[in-house]
Amino acid sequence: KWRPPPPVKARPEQSPKLFSANNILAQHRFAPSSAAEAAPVGDVAAKAGAVGGEEEVRRLLAKHREAATGAYMGTKASNTGWSFSPLCLTRRPVVVYGVGCGMDVSWDVGMAEKYGAQVFLFDPTPRSVRYVRGVVVGFSGDGRMKSGGQLSFTAEGLADKPAEMTFAMPADSGHVSMRNIELADEAMRAKGQTVIAKVDTLGNWMAARGHDYLDVLKIDIEGAEYGVLESLLADDFLPFTQLLVEFHGRFLGEGGEGKRRHEGVLKGLREKGFETIWQQNAGQEVAFLKVEDLGYCEDGGERRVPRKAA
Questions:
Q1: Which helix or strand (DSSP H or E) is residue 259 part of?
Q2: What are the mean pLDDT values of the chain's consecutive 10-residue runs (310 residues total)?
Q3: Secondary structure (3-state) at 153
């Protein structure tokens, strides 16, 4: 049973135990975000054929945006919550990849607990590895839940190609998130503490787990999201109905490069048929829904295609 919990004031890096397996369900938030935060309906004429015309696409997108405003889940206090459309999560199995965990997986646990999702978590950060493994073990020893949902964890990062990547650790030892060394700031470089970790591609992860398509892909990977999304767009490999992204364009430098890449990714997603259904913090966190999958979300009758035919 989901009841509104009391406000949480501590940040995860200040109190990691707050987000242990025993306490994590109490951190969920289902409060609606402002409807004004959802982006206006864009030009959907080119995508309308799959679900019956432009007006029908607009109607369905409005319905999903309304659903998303009431589906916020996660931890408000640490700014790690997300909204999404639950209307696309009614058919089992629900497969979710949560990439970048930090010290709070309350959203991911909520997806498994509330929607019976099979949630696959990924993060190579040393502190996150210890924390997430503890959360997974905390649920029946193997991540299984009474709802039928399940958590699993892999200590790897997401990239545009398989590699052993060097990451810079945060300059503040109280913080958790590390970054690709190429995106490290001056304080990180001055500290000089690095970690080498394995990274892999989304396609390789899915193939290894027998997945053809994801219901939700959530990524929070400290600036590396641009390289990953640029690669997926270039390959026309977009095997997910909903995409939740925390953008870190500020990590790409002060020149125009960050803005150019950010705008390029947004433009590319729209051209591939993804529409914004929710956002917060001036577009730093955004939820996208693939228009081609609207029919699937309605009745499950439409086949979802991860890659367009050549």
A1: helix 257-271
A2: 35 37 37 40 50 86 96 81 95 94 93 94 94 87 78 96 90 81 82 91 97 97 93 97 93 80 96 96 94 92 71
A3: strand
Whole-structure pTM value: 0.83
Contact 201, 162 (CB under 8 A): yes
Cα distances (angstroms) measured from residue 91 to each of 86, 94, 291, 298: 11, 7, 18, 11
Tell me how far apart the 2 most distant CA atoms of the chain are, in Å.
57
For residue 298, count other CB atoms closer than 10 A to its CB: 15
DSSP 35-62: GGGSPPP---GGGGGGGT-HHHHHHHHH
User: If DSSP codes are grouped into helix, strand and coil, which group holds residue 149?
Assistant: coil
Q: In angstroms, what CA-CA distances link 67 with 89, 147, 184?
A: 12, 22, 38
DSSP one-letter code for 16 = G
Q: Is 65 in contact with 59 (CB distance < 8 Å)? A: no
* Dihedral, 69, 51, 55, 85 alpha carbons, nearest 10: 0
Instruction: Report residue 287 as tokens.
Output: 């939820």
Which residue bears the tokens 């309350």?
106
Q: What is the pLDDT of residue 50?
A: 55
Starting at the edge strand that comes first in sequence, how are the strands of the sheet with 179-180 ordered? 157-158, 194-200, 163-168, 179-180
Note whether 171 and 215 are within 8 A (CB): no
The per-residue pLDDT for 146 is: 77
> Of 286, 289, 260, which is closest to residue 272 (Cα–Cα)?
289
d(C-alpha 5, C-alpha 19), whole Å: 14
CA 150, chain centre distance (Å): 17
Distance CA 98, CA 45 (A): 31
